[in-house]
Structure formats: structure tokens, C-alpha cells
Amino acid sequence: ELLAEFEQSVVSLGLKHGDMLFASVAPSARPSEEPAAEAAAPEAARQSAMQVQQHAVDNELERDDGLIRRERDRRMCKHGANAMCEYCTPTEPYDAAYLQTHGIKHMSFQAYLRRVLADHSIRGDISGALPTNMALPLDEPEYRVKAACVGSHAPWPAGICSKCQPSAITLQRQPFRMVDNVEFASPDVVDRLLAFWRASRCQRLGFLYGRYQRLRSVPLGVSALVEAVYEPRQSRDQDGVHIDVGSAELDAELARADTVAAACGMELVGMVFTDLTPAEPAGKVLSRRHADSYFLTSLECRLAAFMQDRRPNACRWARGGRFGSKFVTCCVSGNLSGDIEVSAWQVSNSAMAMQRADLAVPSSAPSKMCVQEPSPTRYVPDVFYRYTNEYNLPVTASAKPAFPVEYLLVSLTQSFPLAPAPAFRSDTPFAIENREHVHAVQSLGALKRHLAPAQGSSERLSVLLADFHLLVYLFGLGILGEHEVALIGRIVCEPMEAAQLAEELMAAGGWQTLVLMLQEASDSDLDAQHSAAGSDDAAAANPAPPAPPSATWACRHCTFENAAANASCEMCALPRD
Fold first, then answer.
1. Which pLDDT tens digit goes with each residue over 260-307?
2. What pairing do the DSSP bridges indicate for beta strands 205-215 and 221-230?
């Protein structure tokens, strides 16, 4: 009423000094129901999290109480066998003293989750329904400008406010890791990768296929068991590799390998690359990666962050339904003794968030990562990192223009089994894909020669088929149907029933078509068909070098002078390029 008569004087309204006025806001003038929307957000996130399909190993670990059982201490425990005290009571999986005693640098992700849930008085088996009286405890870092901001301003980049802009970033060591160990099912898995370097002295990158399983040596730990390495089409260089990550061609290659791996009960678990340089004496390699230089270069860290972000880990305890990644990165390089060694790594969740926001780029110094400069379409918050100075005091420094890559790394352990029992148990290895320039060719002729020893024997055929590279090649031919691919996968996964399953495969229509095609053609015809079909792809991926002006060329491996028409060295049999 006062607003309707605002032109009148105070005296005419009957007001005098000391009177109290009470105001109320009309419903039409009230702001949007932002608080109500924010209050409903946790419930909506909880309902969405209930639909998340977690990995089987995470579901298994959630059913475990995670407690570390301890034996009765003969010196300190003064009670009977049916009692407990502080010296023998089970401890939590995130107990700092236990981790330090056993040399565990990073606790497992499930142990970290138990520590977070302990603040909400949730312990033991956590496989049940999500609690209704608390918000989801995990949230991935996000360094991009919030897209759907409720502020009264134009969308970014035209406007920004304190609600939608990311906070300052402080980099520090991540206390947990999503995968604790990388185990290779057999030394042959690594040896076959090294065979390429030994033949060409060129580096190689491959993708690891296997499965995730529980690791008993780490409380609530996870191990990635590697059964095979798939090598995509890539360039060959002595100082690195060039691969078009994210391209349609690479995605198509990985899709074929993923299908075969899924039929065998496996999945893509990571990637591996070599960084080897011969050194003296013979048989030794140069040691480049150590504490005084770097473990992963800034470029490798960004590649790892990109691959991890493409394969996130599903988690029902996280607000976005995802938290971190189980994708691992392995490097085969020389150690301080000059021997070949495998190291395993992951990058932190902060590194993945910086990759998504395009905040960091590799630098010319391998051990330094550069922070991007702001642009009209890129918001770059303040970035800091913490370290301990020479006086043993914590110091916070600006990460611009560059910061050490160690702040993005999470170290993993790696191992080999004492009694190898690989799933791919073929005693006659099939040629590895994309190795034509080192005289390892996948062709129908090579397939015919590989399957010839079976001679109708289902037991022998089941052994010969247990080769990952062979299965990927068979699937790529397009002759076998889904039923035949599933049968071959069961032959790999169920060795006790392999012979019987091989008999069923031999009676399948797709397999009989393949056998008939191989029988009707000679080896030379099949190899010639493969050479004609694959020449264009090989030339595109590995262009031939220009012809030398002289009539001879010197081998870069042994310096032998060869005729100009030779594609490989007559002395050492290594390729010309």
C-alpha cells in the first residue's frame, strides 16, 4: 500500500518519528527458486548414482570390510586367546603406520573411500544401498567454467561470476591410486614387444589388454593383469613414435581389439611404450629415467591424462557417477644398472581435470609442464604447487609458467608371476599386426601355415587359436560371425573345455567357409592377395624414403654397402629405413 501511494508525504500517511515499519516481498517480485534447486541437487545426484554400473572388482571390494587382521603379539598382549587389545585389534585399510611399515606409498582407492566414509560413521561392508541422509562424498576436480550458471550474466565467455569460475588450483601428491599393481601374465608379453626394438632399433607403443583383479598384498588393492599387447599402426622412429590419438582409424583398430578382448573376458587396461637406446657394453641400454631427471615426460603425462579421461572409472559414490580412471601407463626403459626394466604409472585426477580444461601443455624440458596462457575462450585460474624447501619448511609457489611433472604422477608397482599361466597359451605365436617392415606379415597365407599343424585335431586347434593377435586378425577378416567369435573366446577362457569347444567351432558355418577358402588357394596366392590389399595402407603409414642418388646404400646398423635395389641389408638382414 505504501508503494502505491509513494507520492504522498510521510505526515499524510499518519507516520511519526519512532514508528516501526514492516515490509514483505510480493510473490511476483521474488527471485528464482535457486535455493530449492540446490537443495534438490543432492537427491538428484543420489538417484543418478544408484544407476551407475561399477566395475566387478569394485563391487567385490565393497563387500569386504577392509579390516587388516593382526596376530596376537606375544610380548605386548597380556590377555587370553579370545580377547583383543590395542596391539592386536584389526586396523583400518588406510592406517598410515601400516602403509609406511609395508612400503605402500599410495593407499588403494577403496581404502581412500573407506577413510572418507569413516567421517560419516560408515564402516565395514559398503555394498548396500546409498545412505539417504548424506550427500555423495566424492567429487572429481573440475577446472572448466561452469556451463549452466544461474547467475544473472551472459554465458561464458561473454560473462563470468564467482559461482561459475573455477577456484585456484593447488597441486600436491595424490594420496591414493586407482590401480595398485600391473602384472604381466608372462614374460613373453614384454619380450614380443621388445623383439620389435631389437629388430629395428625403433620405439614402439602398444595397448594392454587383460583384466582387473583383487591384489591381496595391498589392503583393498586392485591389480591389472596384462595378457596381451595390441600394436596399432604408427610411425617408426629411433627417438619416439607418432600416433594419431583420437583419430577414426585408431578408434576402429581399438574397437576390433576391444571386441575380441570382450569375447575372451578381457578389456583395455592401459598402454605401454618403449624408450630404449643401446649402450656399452653390449646388451646394456642407456638409463634416462631416474630421480635426477624424470620418470615420465610432460608429453607422456598429457597423453596418459587424455587416455585416462576417455576411460573414466564408474563410481556410485561420486557426484558425477565417475571418479578417476583405471587406465595405466607402462614404460620399458633402462634402469640405473643399464638393464631393461618396466615401470608403471598413472596421472592424478588433477592432471585429468587440467587436460579437460586445456590448462597445461608439454614443454621442451621433459620434466616440466607449462601452464597455458588465458585466451578469450580459455579461463586459466591461479595454479600453485607445494614443496619443502632446504629448511624443511612447506612452501607454496606459483606454477606459472611451468611446474614439475612429479606433481601429476602416481607410481604403481609391477610384477611377473612365479608360475606363469597365460590365457593366450599358443606355443606357435602368430605374426603381430602392423609389423610388415620387420618381415612379420599377417596374411591368409600366414594363417594357413599357422593352422596347418592342427590337421583336423580339435585339441591342437584349441591351442593354436589361443593367440590374441591371431584372433584380432580373424575378426578383421569379417568371415566369422558373432557365434564363432564367442566360441573362440570361450576356448581361451575355458582351457578345460577347449577341445570340445573347438569341435563345435569346426562344425560352424563361418569356420568351414574360412577353411575352404584356405584350402582352395596356395600360400603364394594368399600372400600376394594380402600384399596387394595392404600396400596402400602400409605406404600411407610408413612412406618409403627417397631413392639414393648412388648405386649403393650404407646400412645404418652395420655400415655394409648394399645394392640400390635391396630393401634390406644383405649382412644383418635389417630393413633399409
1. 999 999 999 999 999 999 998 888 999 999 999 999 999 999 999 999
2. antiparallel
